[in-house]
Amino acid sequence: MTVVAARELRDGEIVFVGIGLPNLACNLARATHAPGLVLIYESGAIGAIPERLPVSIGDPSLVTGSLMVTGMADVFQLFLQGGRIEVGFLGGAQIDKYGNINTTVVGDYEKPKVRLPGSGGAAEIAIHARRTVIISRLSTRAFPESVDYITSPGNRSKGKSRKEWGMPGAGPVKVITDRGVLCASDVDGEMELAALYPGVALEDVTSRVGWALRARESLEMVAPPDAEELRLLREVLDPGKLYLKGS
Amino acid sequence: MTVVAARELRDGEIVFVGIGLPNLACNLARATHAPGLVLIYESGAIGAIPERLPVSIGDPSLVTGSLMVTGMADVFQLFLQGGRIEVGFLGGAQIDKYGNINTTVVGDYEKPKVRLPGSGGAAEIAIHARRTVIISRLSTRAFPESVDYITSPGNRSKGKSRKEWGMPGAGPVKVITDRGVLCASDVDGEMELAALYPGVALEDVTSRVGWALRARESLEMVAPPDAEELRLLREVLDPGKLYLKGS
Amino acid sequence: MSEAATGAPGALGIASSKVLSMREAIARYVHDGDTVVIEGFTHLICFAAGHEIIRQKRRDLVLCRLTPDLIYDQLIAAACARKLVFSWAGNPGVGSLHAFRRAVERGRPPLEIEEYSHFGMVARFSAGAAHLPFWPLRDYQGTDIPVSNPLIKQVTCPFTGESLAAVPALNPDVTIVHAQRADAEGNAQIWGLLGVQKEAAFASKHVIVVVEELVSTSVVRADPNRTLIPGVIVDAVVVEPWGAHPSYAQGHYDRDNEFYVAWDDIARDPATLASYLDKYVMGVSDRSEYLTLHEGLTTRLAARDMFCAGVNYGY
Amino acid sequence: MSEAATGAPGALGIASSKVLSMREAIARYVHDGDTVVIEGFTHLICFAAGHEIIRQKRRDLVLCRLTPDLIYDQLIAAACARKLVFSWAGNPGVGSLHAFRRAVERGRPPLEIEEYSHFGMVARFSAGAAHLPFWPLRDYQGTDIPVSNPLIKQVTCPFTGESLAAVPALNPDVTIVHAQRADAEGNAQIWGLLGVQKEAAFASKHVIVVVEELVSTSVVRADPNRTLIPGVIVDAVVVEPWGAHPSYAQGHYDRDNEFYVAWDDIARDPATLASYLDKYVMGVSDRSEYLTLHEGLTTRLAARDMFCAGVNYGY
């Protein structure tokens, strides 16, 4: 997943980075095809080049050696709302067929079965980044037809398209999972299966998604990680396997 | 005038300082009875202790050795609109009987006889400072019954009191001139003669004001500058007489 | 490098010092029922102040903060809070805040919540700091956040007619900010992550600045662009080295990630959590005693030196 | 102290340098009819850029700026401007801007004006930078400013029902910012007065950063809290030492107050002003030639050293 996510990034892009796999993916991209990637963290570090794998998005290693450190008002107003962010990475406990994400509650908001952390900056990343990429392991629990709570809007939410809502960004263009990659339909914004990992059958994916997943006519095959990508991840970027637990 | 203005300041107060005489007055107060005065300039210097007489409110000597330098958005939003400024000094080409000030145009706005610089920060200083003090030399041209243009509102403007306008600050409490001091009436906010300089007759003031100036029953006598005040002004604060041209 | 105060505050020769002990500062400025903010985004979170609030048994507090973090989990567990106003309630890099979850999922203890996104909280503090009644933002379209929080409203632009989200000003009774250094008047300098500390402080009726190092005013005046919070809005200055542990202070000490990980187990079980508070919070009288319970901490986490060059303020 | 670039930009070994000459930068990013901002509150006003705009004979510009200062007086006199958007049009510490006054009082040359207070201009840039259509502020009650400028409107708070002033976003085509230093990507560091440069730059479609000193990225990265404008929003970097003269650059040179005083006489008479422009602007090809006309300038105004200490970014 991390390698596939890293390949989504183009050199020189401005990426709003979340912690965990997105952070690893961004640093892998920097170390391979995208040395000019500018990493922006909601904590206020711009152009960070962390010397160690940051354990949180507020890690001191994101500050030391970065290009700029500014307050959170600037991050949200000038960078995100200002339209300066090209890619945002998002994940969540639940993702639905339009890429709506729930990181707030499982069950009812007032009487939740599981209380999750909430939005943080995810709502505004989903609204303002020019495009977003979602990363999540496949399971029917994580991919219901509709989420219990919309924390971050996808391509269609509450009966309206992004355009009708007046959202500036293009929304989630891809969902990168551990078995295949879903892409947003140009027609209605629904997530469709577009690529499979080597050795994964179509049913391995569809059986783990809570809606009737459409598959594109010609499914692409995801290229496996090459030796250099694996070496960087395992030996340089996350030798302690903080985030790489089988991904 | 400078000495009288300096005496208006209490130790420890936070003063929004304009250039020229107000600046001189504030630095005189710091050197005499108010060493804890905190000088704030609209340029963003907070707690300035200028080593030389600043030639503008953006002088580098206001930065060096100050307590804080911040952007102008903070100056206007956090300090001024935030209600943190206790005293503001204002001057202007025209001052009317309610302390409304014109620093924009003499004559008509569209076809001005004299185009003045405009508000700068004066409008918001007049609105937000907890109290303001006006400094101006007396003349019928400078003190008309009503100003040609209200740049900075006084105690009553366009038929409404400050309270009716919802302005946070108390408005101009005093007008310090070169012949006497006017104070705002508690009843209707009109400026009334409250004190005379030594050797100045009542008529010397009333003949230089463009409205029927009310005088308080018992007029106070302004104490003349003492030797130390004069020494500081002439030898330390403005030895080049940049601002002290007979004041 | 800096002229650190080595003796009592009086040693600095400053007349009107605001320096208080943490006990005095909390006693004077934090009252039952107050709206309280201990800000800091991962960086400079003042655990020392939170612990003193627990020790002084404050009740019915309305706790506000973007990221409640472990210190608010402890305040919730210690039954200090009536309500939480927040945008992300997790253990950063680790997982859940279990005391928070027990309160919200099972009402043990009961806790009212008022929830925004980060941008919404930043906007609430910004409005409070600027003495505006609301702050406009482009946010929340298509989400359930304004459904569960009716305080998120809409405002119409008088120029374009667009409808934007609006959140109300947040004006806490007291904000506690941890800083690397300040003088005795509270002129505080912070570097590294700045979070929303400036906005929260300006929005508050009272401000307590807690510092790693009390410095003479000349240190502040030597680099005025570094000052984040001016003394004119500060009520009390508390000198509390390592007061942000287990969070971190850039240039002083690293984050104690081991403790963040350990908290997951401590907080999962109410009894374990209670005995943690008994030993490390109620069982000590102040932060210096807390530090004696953490042998080797200061060597394990002390920052290495990576000084930047100074800049020229001459003219 | 800092790793200044001594040779060509290529000497820094940075692949995607944005470094251009002033001539190239103005030719590429300033066009007839554009909305142009050269910001800087007394400090860091880029006269070098203004002069190049005059030399390239740009016309119909909408010039925006809180304090037009001498450089806009020159641009107005040179007939580059169609309109001025401002809040204080004077010669700071001296008196009037005479070219501005002739234009407004007598229409020579004609000049449209759109006038705010400083807070209003700050708010317009803030809205533009944040991509909001308006900015709310408590201002203008009882004044004639909204009478003469109908773009100042009212907005109603959705929480309290209060009516506040509102100004529209300002989004210039190009903003020119002078800075003490930047790297070849435009990551710019400024100390001393900051004005509204950050807001103006973020509000603009294009940004030109002009610097006293081009430095390697490692200088920027050593003190990231000092960065005011990030390279990601910058289009061009121009290296122009003394480019802010007669205004000043903290740590580099003092304000040339003699020239501010002299301008009063120069600008009072259109013919004298024209011959000034002929000699010092049109008569030179660039800033280095301009400097050769000012013998003794660099010794008269060079800043003395008053370096602050650095801070520790270690962890």
What does this structure look like?
The complex is a heterotetramer, with two copies of chain A (247 residues) and two copies of chain C (315 residues). Chain A has 247 residues and is of the alpha/beta class. Chain A has eight helices and 16 strands. The longest helix of chain A has 11 residues. Chain A starts with a helix and ends in a 10-residue tail after the last helix. By secondary structure, chain C is of the alpha/beta class. Chain C has two domains: 248 residues, Glutaconate Coenzyme A-transferase (3-Layer(aba) Sandwich); 35 residues, no CATH class. In chain C, 31% of the residues lie in helices and 20% in strands. In chain C, strands 1, 2, 3, 6, 10, 11, 12, 13 and 14 form a nine-stranded mixed sheet that branches. In chain C, strands 7-9-8 form a three-stranded antiparallel sheet, covered by helices on one side. Chain C has a two-stranded antiparallel sheet with strand order 4-5. In chain C, helix 1 packs across helix 2 and helix 2 runs parallel beside helix 3. Chains B and C meet through strand 3, helix 3, strand 4 and helix 4 of B and helix 8 of C.
Helix content of chain A: 10-25%
Q: Give the overall form of chain A.
A: globular
Secondary-structure arrangement, i.e. CATH architecture of the largest domain in chain C: 3-Layer(aba) Sandwich
What's the alpha carbon Rg of chain C, rounded to whole Å? 20 Å
Largest sheet of chain A: 8 strands, mixed
Our measurement of the CA-to-CA distance between the termini of chain A, rounded to an integer number of angstroms, reads 6 Å
The pair of chains with the biggest contact is: A-C, 53 and 53 residues
Structural class of chain A: alpha/beta
Report the strand count of chain C. Answer: 14
List the defining traits of the structure above:
heterotetramer; A: alpha/beta; Glutaconate Coenzyme A-transferase; 8-stranded mixed sheet; two-stranded antiparallel sheet; 16 strands; 24% strand; C: alpha/beta; 3-stranded antiparallel sheet; 14 strands
